[in-house]
Amino acid sequence: MAPLPLARLAVYNRPFSYVGVDYFGPLLVKQGRSNVKRWIALFTCLTVRAVHLEMVHSLTTASCISCIRRFVCRLGSPVEFFSDNATNFHGAERILREQINNGIQATFTNSNTKWTFIPPGAPHMGGAWERLVRSVKTAMGDAYTEGKLNDEELQTFIEEAESIVNTRPLTYLPIESIESEALTPNHFLLGSSNGVKLPGIDIVQGTSQDAWNHIQRQLNRFWQRWLKEYLPVIRRQIKWFDETRNVQVGDVVLIADETKRNRWIRGRVIDSIKAQDGHVRQAIVKTSGGVLRRPVSKLAVIDVGISAASEANRPHPGENVSADTSIERSDNPEP
User: Is the domain of 15 the same as that of 150?
Assistant: First the structure.
């Protein structure tokens, strides 16, 4: 298993410094006598696992940029975005990056903000936000009646779902004290699981400096609990212990995409992308239809090739084939 990325370990950073974003829907809402489609954009903090939901009116790039601007205005500019390869995400990243390069005031108030895309065909690499899409849908449950709500009612509805998801426990209930509660994303956003001040978290009487120090101590206490209770849980590695050979440049592979029956895309690896642990987890494959980027989980390496010696002994057209001519096995066929 791959080690946790740095975005999952950004301790003592502002929530939503590292953000995963995804869309889900559409949802039908009432507008006059007809129903129109609406989508929900989910932003999740990859460190404290908090979520922020925005209602989106279309899948266009312009609508995506407006959604991101609303998010940044409320929760600040992130250090890095993570998403899949939807065309509206690519379009938003390109336009916003052009604005920064041209010196125009853009959504990314931090010029060092990056946008990282997972490989195409690898939704499991976006599991951090895909799983929360399901949690939001579960929170919405049967209360949402398709085509019965208007825009204002749907906005209220998804914000209530956001509040429910942010109160979910990240850790087990502590046994030291009955009054203690499990750590939740709302502890980092609101100071408690439900936003109501708990005993011992009220601002102490005194100067503003004393109040500031008191709040900082409470936040540090939450982060200490995060390190002791939550981090050991997400660091567990429960499968994929055996070492396997990395995909190498020149390997002939079959791309296991969801294609038509009996249609297998074959190509040759022209570049391999290594992760920080030294393992290849993405590769650039050249096929007859173009160049594709795919995760190694979708590549089946063909380990039978033609060695250099057998290639030299291969008869030319028109020559007789001798009895000792054979095709040898080679783990590293020449490109």
Answer: yes
The CA distance from 129 to 40, in Å, is 13
Beta-bridge partners for 268: 252, 286
- How far apart, in whole angstroms, are the C-alpha atoms of residue 77 and residue 71? 8
Asked if 15 and 94 sit in the same domain, the reply is: yes
C-beta of residue 327 within 8 angstroms of C-beta of residue 312: no
**Residues 67-82: pLDDT tens digits?**
998 999 899 889 999 9
Q: Which of 234, 268, 292 is the last residue of a domain?
A: 234
pLDDT in tens, 91-100: 988 887 787 6
My answer on whether 13 and 76 are in the same domain is yes
Residues 128 and 76 in one domain: yes
User: Does 145 map to a domain?
Assistant: yes
Pairing state between β 80-83 and 114-117: parallel
For residue 195, the enclosing domain spans: 185-234
Strand pairing report for 18-31 and 80-83: parallel
pLDDT band at 331 (very low <50, low <70, confident <90, very high): very low
Residue 307 inside a domain? The answer is: yes
> Whole-prediction pTM value?
0.80
Q: Are strands 265-274 and 252-255 parallel, antiparallel or unpaired?
A: antiparallel
CA distance 135 to 165: 7
